[in-house]
Amino acid sequence: MADANVNAEVQRRYREFIDLLPLTIALAGLPHSEAGRYYGEEQIESRLYTVRHAYKAARAIARESVQKS
Length: 69
Hints:
Blueprint: H1 2-28, H2 41-68
Helix pairs in contact: 1-2
């Protein structure tokens, strides 16, 4: 039974992530790479930092909106 609860929690978190992804990307405001050009390791780390913080902000906005409704 504990396995089912863990699996349900993982699925809930995944769904939350997917639901917040459009807002996260909009908040991050990162440009797309040019065709045929790839980001280096440092650029990826920098973009990852930005996306993580944008996701935290998106979660906070969503939770705040739900609580005030």
